[in-house]
Amino acid sequence: MIVTRIQRLGDTLNRWKRAGLLAVLMSAAACAPAADAPTLRIAYVDWSSSVASANVVCAVLRERLGHPCELIETTADAMWRMVADGEADALLSAWLPDTHAQYYAEYGDRLADLGPNLVGTRAGLVIPAVGVGRQTGGRGERTRPALDIDSIAQLADHRQALGGRIVGIDPAAGIMSATERAFGAYDLEGFRLVKGSETAMTQALADAIARNAPIVVTGWEPHWMLGRWSLKFLDDPKNVYGGRGSIHTLVRPGLARDDPQAQGILDRFEWDSRAMEQLLVWIHQDGGRDPYAQALRWTRANPRRVQAWLGTGLAD
Q1: pLDDT, tens digit, 9 for 90 and up, residues 184-203
Q2: I need a surface site. Which of 25, 158, 201, 263 has the fewest CB within 10 A?
Q3: Cross-strand bridge partners of residue 232
């Protein structure tokens, strides 16, 4: 009789597995609200990629686990320092090995590196790849852009047309330090790096494209602007900006002891440029939308990937 019951239980589990019910039950158990869980504090910067990662992880913690989560917007240097000092628990926006090399050298030994959450990043100087209007002429040739060059080494010959400006973002960003180094490496005397924000940079780019005016901006991949406009990275023969890299998740030491549930999510969190860019487009379409609401929408549209982060399934 005991053997028969065991066989019946096995048959039931197999039916559930075929119907997908077993995965649902496992997911429900893993997503049970954490009793008295501490608030996970995620430090981030107002860059599109940083906003996307912080909000999507926070949405999974809150909506799937009932786990408190706080997002702390700050600057790039403060983001690293806050996690190293224990003022925040995690950052999801460490661009390594090149863009944030200076921050890693200063704070890396006081942080736990959980590894890449996205592989295949790129940073450098970006220009529009084609002119406005028709992208091809009457005989099929591509419309020439206002600035028709291929390399950073050619910028010095176009200083007057560019007004001596390269449009950047917030001054603490690693790409800004790299661009300052590029000025010396490529003899860009007479140029100035315009400091501001990612929003100001993309608006300047949009305005220049609309007027078919020459412009150079600091750019990186993944980014929504690469999907919206035809852009290209200028060649960097002196390798000032480095090659392809990764975005890493870093946490304060002791988080695994203090909050193992959150640590597990952070350790399993990973996606690719295509997945991130889907969320970036949703956030930035129609002049910008609530990033948390769009992150929640993204989690509902990508259940298998979320299940993998929860430890209950396989990624897409």
Answers
A1: 999 999 999 999 999 999 99
A2: 25
A3: 127
Smallest Cα–Cα separation from 258: which of 33, 39, 30, 85? Answer: 39
- Euclidean distance between CA atoms 68 and 66, whole angstroms: 7
- In the prediction, which pLDDT does 25 show? 38
| DSSP for 171-240, written as a single string | TTSHHHHHHHHHHHHTT-TT-EEE---HHHHHHHHHHHHHHT----EEEEES-HHHHHS-EEEPB-TT-S
Domain range 122-233, CATH class = alpha beta
The class (CATH top level) of 36-121+245-310 is: alpha beta
DSSP β-ladder status, 231-233 and 112-128: antiparallel
pLDDT in tens, 226-250: 888 999 999 999 999 999 999 999 9
CA distance 224 to 126: 13
Instruction: Tell me the whole-structure pTM to 2 decimals.
Output: 0.79
Residue spans per domain, the chain: 36-121+245-310, 122-233
Domains 36-121+245-310 and 122-233 share a fold: yes
